[in-house]
Design brief:
7 helices, alpha/beta, 31% helix, TIM Barrel
Length: 207
């Protein structure tokens, strides 16, 4: 199986094209103002329009008001929604778009029980836990905490880099990997060499 790759935190049309041309399957647009990678609707529309066919455009939200999501969907050609907060399954599904639900993994948490509430999700994204921080920590977590046999496709996130993504894939066998800070020159600015190295690390692990 080929592991899919999402490059998240895209902030410019140039970075979106860079990720796509390097081989990314998806790009992520962050609509969460506290994030250093947050993007305006106007700029996101430019990025989404610049991305070539067959690259999935993902919009990331954290506990959004419905009007926020609807405003993005009205202006941007979004293919998939990603929710990183405390949204219920009904809140995630209300927009008629396929969605990912993110879970922050930590010792003692019942991931199977939590994830089972979101069986309508296209996949479950697993990220590192830090109190009051909804993703984007740049920190990895203990992959041994991931239970076997989860019902939905797993997207692995959290502190992935070119150096550790191969080990992560061989350990977890996720459907996809999601990277942001691990391919950046600075927060919100992607680095071509790091993107190329990350994608090469994924492809090498798939052999």
């Amino acid at each position: 199986m080929r592991t899919r790759i999402k490059i998240c935190g895209i902030t410019t049309p140039g970075d979106g094209l860079l990720a796509a041309r390097a081989g990314a399957d998806a790009i992520g647009l962050v609509f969460y103002p506290p994030s250093p990678r947050a993007i305006s609707i106007e700029r996101a529309a430019e990025v989404a329009a610049a991305v070539p066919p067959f690259v999935t455009r993902v919009a990331l939200f954290v506990n959004p008001a419905p009007a926020e999501v609807e405003a993005v969907l009205k202006r941007c050609p979004i293919d998939l929604l990603q929710f990183h907060g405390d949204e219920s399954s009904e809140e995630c599904a209300r927009y008629g778009k396929p969605f990912l639900k993110a879970f922050r993994v930590r010792p003692g948490a019942d991931l199977v029980k939590s994830a089972s509430l979101y069986r309508g999700a296209a996949g479950w994204l697993l990220d590192a836990y830090r109190a009051d921080v909804y993703g984007g920590t740049g920190e990895a977590f203990d992959w041994g905490l991931i239970p076997a046999g989860l019902e939905r496709p797993v997207v692995l996130s959290g502190g992935l880099t070119a150096e550790n993504v191969g080990a992560a894939i061989r350990r977890v066998h996720p459907w996809a990997v999601d990277v942001s800070s691990g391919v950046e020159a600075a927060k919100g600015a992607k680095d071509p060499a790091r993107i190329a190295a990350f994608i090469a690390g994924v492809r090498n692990a798939d052999v």
